[in-house]
Amino acid sequence: MGVARCAAVRASVARTTVSRREGRSSAQAPAVRRRCVAVNAGTGKFIVGGNWKCNGTAASVKDLVKALNAGKIDADVDVYVAPPFVFIPRVQAELNSEKYAIAAQNCWVSEGGAFTGEVSAEMLVDANIPWVILGHSERRALCGETSEFVGEKVKYALSKGLKVALCIGETLDQRESGKTMDVCYAQLKAVNDVITAADWDNVVIAYEPVWAIGTGKVATPDQAQDVHAGIRKWCASNISPEVASKIRIQYGGSVNASNCDELATKEDIDGFLVGGASLIGDAFVTICNSAKNSK
Ligand SMILES: O=C(CO)COP(=O)(O)O
């Protein structure tokens, strides 16, 4: 994250916090309330997610949790990890919750019921799981989730009080035919069409170019920065300048302990969503601390 942008977001958050402490006249109260909501997600902190995908055994999860608990995480970083559903209770019981929040990798588009194999947003809230990853390219490609369906899922998850990591990104074909930004904008629009500007306070965008996921082919820092800057600009024009300045944009796709520091220097990279390397405790801890290391 660029130092200047980070400082600006923090200053705005600090101003809001001071306003909350000082209180306001009743005429000003509604505006203050709206800004207080924004404090929830617009912390200005670097944010790293670990998406464990469909990996692990009881034994490997135990080892990973042990390694994560042993890691020192910079206080200026928000971290969430997304284990497979069956391991979540175990991880909740054993992982240090002061350092790591828990995320689900998916949830259903509406209230639960006769939807075999699905997990509802209400269940996540009931199980004390604050985050959910939605729109991952693997679900879009392998489970047929359209952008409109993802939009409805984001809307429903937010309405139940979850925080959402919204994944977007282009395939190799789309990049090579110059459609990267159009694809990202269309995926964002499908969500923006069904949620409000205030809802974005509880969303983190994860830009994950499909060609970089699990391939070892990481986007260069400049490639990632260009797309992140475009996403932020789109947010300014289509949501609001305030949301654009606060929203955190993670990069995902073959991030590892060796390439994270350079990516983290980029102005519009506010964190990472990590797959493979999040299964290796010390590598993930290094990635979590990359914003500090790259200063
Ligand atoms: O899909 C990802 C995170 O959601 C990225 O996966 P990799 O880090 O394994 O490329």
From TrEMBL:
Molecular-function annotations in GO: triose-phosphate isomerase activity
CDD domains: TIM (cd00311)
Gene Ontology CC annotation, any one: cytosol
Biological-process GO terms, alphabetical: gluconeogenesis; glyceraldehyde-3-phosphate biosynthetic process; glycerol catabolic process; glycolytic process
Pathway entry: Carbohydrate biosynthesis
One Pfam family in the UniProt entry: TIM
Keyword Isomerase: yes
Alphabetic keyword roster: Isomerase
Subunit details: Homodimer.
Similarity section: Belongs to the triosephosphate isomerase family.
Designated name of the protein: Triosephosphate isomerase
